[in-house]
């Protein structure tokens, strides 16, 4: 028969505040503590724990027991002396370790107590004694090795502050001039340098807001560039000397900016960021007016509550753009399109960019770090619903959402550690109506203005804009060359490559090859019309900066996109085409045919030789080649300057011909119909066309469990 197991005794751990050693009512526990003080291993942790007992009777007995021991190591001696300056034997032992000869003129008990207190109870050090001649004599006579061992807690990686810093400085001053310099002097100087660095760095951090606001007085309230400069300045202050230099730069920054002078600085990253601050100041000089009044008016909601500052900028932008539409187009029989209002029109474009600039950071407040674009767009729509505004064609919503996208785009370029080096291809065929100012919108001038605004805050960023005409008459190329555009950061080139066998794809691929060969690191292409604003290209750059991304689509169909499709979304035919592309090429993209894409040059160099389609379906061929080379295809939502009109049809395309081209692309990129299912493609083939397949009724079979009988 097996005896029942004995229960395991339960241990109860009381909080320190309830410990019996903290009062005098438990003599047995006090006796145990004294026994520990008498016989336990005298390591510093044990001595520190015993000295933490504060009940007077217990503490006195423990201190006497420790004082009577002759085996306390140096650190434990210092602990005991610092907490119990009346421990005579311990003080004598510590004095003997500091002054081994015992006959030095400065060998005194008070110095021993002071050194112990300096390490473990620095607030109790007597400053008058530190200034005395006797202290200086003792410091000069003390054993430097023992001093170093005693001061190790504040010398070995520590950062002395307050009384500890004052005492260490007095000790090193007293020892100054001794030859050779002992290790304690070197370690002490290093510790003091760390302390000085910490103090100056703390002052630098504390001055951040004041300096940024001072710079904002000269940048129209824009603060993102100033914030990034200050962050770079703080990061460069690795030593106390550097921190002092950085603090001096911070103190004089506003005056230097106001005078238009260059900041003398040895740190390349800080100099680069200062160029951005100076660029923001120059841009502020030519900004249109109105923001200040809109910002002031947007302080309170209609109910009298105060707007959060991150939302206040959106409200101010809403009011500013809405007022512009009312005053300019409110009485027009036919309102303009969004691209005419916010791109082609100089005043509208300038106001959009004014709002976008302030959304990047106005007096350090920006909605961008706090909300994603889908939430910001929802806020804009909610604001319009609350206001019950009747604005022609909702133009103010198109403008404000495009400003949000432009703001995030510009913030990306500003925050990048390296400047953007862009190459952009714009294909042309019979596009003179987009290039003649008196006839239409002068798209080239607008695109340079949008791109120039994006780059102006980063003087070290550059772009090549390459327009390629594939028509045989060369009319578009001649019209583009006749336009005088000049921007210090943008080089505009016009090429003519007649090609009757190409339908956009050939010249886009040729242009990308040319720009990659010219050394541009980020390549993009877009259409000549004004649907896709080039000031949103920074959204693509942000996605390309993510590891492994080889292509970025500016999608019109994401939840954070705006402007292109009706509220119900794309047509069934469009959705079916997208699903067929996914089946055939394994491209999980919402908008593979979007005419606003970007690529890193490294990915293009391997993908372009695998791309052969020169038709309108070339996009998917290039994306499939990118994916085939091991890269990721990403998407970003864009705000297209496009007004959807019910029943309106854009340029007709033969999507069935394009889809047949996609099927040929898939076979070339490795599709094996015998091993991989393509149900959407099969459905379209069986129906005879995309339109016929989209018109087919879809049936849903409900499966129900059989009823039991």
How would you sum up this structure, described in words?
The chain has 709 residues and is α/β, with parallel strands linked by helices. It has 32 helices and seven strands. The protein has helices at 27-39, 44-51, 56-67, 74-83, 88-98, 109-120, 127-130, 133-141, 144-150, 152-155, 163-175, 183-206, 208-216, 224-236, 240-259, 268-285, 291-297, 309-329, 338-344, 346-360, 373-387, 395-415, 443-456, 475-481, 505-517, 537-544, 572-585, 601-607, 618-628, 655-668, 679-687, 690-695; strands at 421-428, 462-469, 490-496, 522-526, 549-555, 596-600, 632-637. Helix 18 (309-329) packs across helix 22 (395-415) and helix 19 (338-344) crosses helix 20. It is elongated. Mean pLDDT is 88; it is low at 699-709.
- The overall pLDDT average reads 88
Detail the poorly predicted runs. Answer: 699-709
Shape: elongated
Q: Trace the largest sheet across and list its strands.
A: 3-2-1-4-6-5-7
- In total, the number of strands is 7
**What profile does the largest beta sheet have?**
7 strands, mixed
Structural class: alpha/beta
Beta content: 5-15%
Number of helices: 32
Task: Tell me roughly what share of residues is in helical segments.
Answer: 40-55%
Rg calc: 37 Å
> Kindly, what is the distance between the CA atoms of the first and last residues, rounded to a whole number of angstroms?
57 Å
Oligomer state of the chains in this structure: single chain
Tell me the layout of helices and strands.
Layout: H1 27-39, H2 44-51, H3 56-67, H4 74-83, H5 88-98, H6 109-120, H7 127-130, H8 133-141, H9 144-150, H10 152-155, H11 163-175, H12 183-206, H13 208-216, H14 224-236, H15 240-259, H16 268-285, H17 291-297, H18 309-329, H19 338-344, H20 346-360, H21 373-387, H22 395-415, E1 421-428, H23 443-456, E2 462-469, H24 475-481, E3 490-496, H25 505-517, E4 522-526, H26 537-544, E5 549-555, H27 572-585, E6 596-600, H28 601-607, H29 618-628, E7 632-637, H30 655-668, H31 679-687, H32 690-695
Parallel strand pairs: 1-2, 1-4, 2-3, 5-7
Antiparallel strand pairs: 4-6, 5-6
Helix pairs in contact: 1-3, 2-4, 4-5, 4-6, 5-6, 8-11, 9-12, 11-12, 12-15, 13-15, 14-15, 14-16, 17-18, 18-20, 18-22, 19-20, 20-22, 21-22, 22-26, 27-30, 27-31, 28-29
């Amino acid at each position: 028969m097996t005896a029942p197991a004995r229960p395991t005794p339960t241990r109860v751990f009381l909080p320190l505040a309830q410990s019996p050693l903290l009062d005098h009512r438990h003599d047995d526990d006090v006796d145990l503590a004294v026994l520990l003080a008498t016989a336990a291993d005298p390591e510093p942790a044990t001595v520190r724990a015993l000295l933490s007992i504060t009940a007077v009777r217990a503490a006195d007995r423990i201190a006497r027991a420790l004082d009577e021991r002759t085996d306390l190591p140096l650190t434990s001696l210092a602990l005991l002396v610092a907490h119990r300056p009346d421990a005579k034997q311990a003080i004598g032992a510590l004095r003997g370790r500091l002054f081994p000869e015992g006959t030095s003129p400065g060998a005194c008990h008070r110095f021993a107590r002071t050194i112990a207190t300096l390490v473990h109870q620095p607030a109790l050090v007597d400053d008058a004694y530190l200034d005395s001649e006797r202290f200086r004599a003792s410091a000069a006579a003390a054993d430097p090795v023992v001093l170093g061992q005693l001061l190790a807690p504040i010398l070995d990686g520590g950062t002395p502050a307050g009384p500890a810093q004052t005492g260490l400085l007095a000790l090193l001053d007293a020892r100054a001039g001794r030859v050779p310099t002992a290790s304690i002097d070197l370690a002490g100087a290093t510790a003091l340098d760390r302390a000085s660095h910490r103090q100056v760095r703390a002052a630098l951090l504390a001055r951040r807001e004041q300096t940024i606001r001072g710079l904002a007085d000269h940048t129209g309230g824009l603060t993102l560039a100033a914030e990034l400069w200050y962050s770079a300045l703080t990061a460069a202050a690795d030593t106390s000397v550097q921190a002092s230099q950085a603090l001096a730069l911070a103190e004089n920054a506003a005056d230097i900016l106001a005078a238009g002078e260059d900041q003398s600085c040895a740190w390349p990253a800080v100099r680069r960021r200062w160029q951005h601050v100076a660029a923001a100041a120059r841009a502020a000089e030519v900004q249109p007016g109105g923001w200040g009044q809109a910002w002031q008016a947007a302080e309170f909601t209609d109910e009298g509550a105060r707007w959060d500052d991150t939302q206040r900028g959106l409200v101010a932008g809403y009011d500013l753009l809405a007022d512009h539409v009312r005053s300019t187009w409110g009485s027009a029989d036919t309102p303009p399109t969004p691209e005419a209002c916010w791109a082609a029109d100089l005043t509208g474009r300038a106001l959009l960019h004014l709002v976008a600039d302030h959304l990047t950071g106005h007096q350090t407040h920006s909605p961008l770090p706090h909300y994603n674009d889908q939430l910001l767009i929802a806020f804009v729509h909610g604001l319009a619903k609350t206001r019950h505004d009747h604005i022609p064609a909702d133009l103010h919503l198109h403008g404000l959402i495009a400003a949000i996208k432009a703001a995030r785009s510009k913030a990306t370029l500003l925050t990048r550690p390296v400047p953007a080096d862009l190459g952009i291809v714009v294909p042309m065929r019979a596009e003179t109506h987009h290039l003649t100012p008196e006839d239409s919108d002068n798209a080239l001038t607008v695109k340079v203005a949008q791109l120039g605004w994006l780059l102006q805050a980063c003087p070290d960023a550059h772009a090549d804009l390459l327009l390629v005409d594939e028509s045989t008459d060369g009319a578009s190329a001649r019209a583009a060359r006749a336009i005088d555009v000049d921007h210090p950061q943008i080089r505009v080139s016009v090429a003519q490559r007649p090609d009757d066998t190409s339908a956009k794809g050939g010249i886009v691929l040729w242009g990308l090859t040319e720009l990659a060969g010219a050394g541009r690191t980020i390549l993009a292409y877009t259409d000549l019309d004004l649907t896709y604003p080039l000031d949103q290209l920074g959204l693509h750059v942000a996605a390309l900066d993510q590891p492994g991304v080889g292509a970025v689509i500016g999608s019109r169909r994401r939840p954070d996109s705006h402007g292109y499709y009706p509220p119900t979304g794309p047509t069934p035919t469009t959705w079916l085409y997208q699903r067929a592309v996914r089946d055939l090429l394994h491209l999980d993209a919402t908008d593979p045919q979007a005419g606003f894409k970007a690529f890193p040059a490294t990915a293009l160099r391997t993908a372009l030789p695998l791309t052969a389609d020169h038709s309108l379906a070339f996009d998917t061929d290039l994306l499939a080649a990118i994916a085939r080379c091991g890269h990721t295809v990403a998407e970003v939502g864009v705000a297209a300057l496009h007004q959807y009109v019910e029943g309106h049809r854009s340029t007709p395309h033969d999507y069935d011909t394009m889809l047949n081209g996609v099927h040929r692309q898939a076979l070339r990129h490795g599709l094996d119909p015998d091993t991989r299912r393509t149900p959407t493609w099969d459905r379209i083939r069986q129906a005879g066309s995309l339109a016929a397949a989209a018109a087919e009724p879809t049936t849903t079979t409900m499966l129900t469990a059989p009823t039991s009988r």
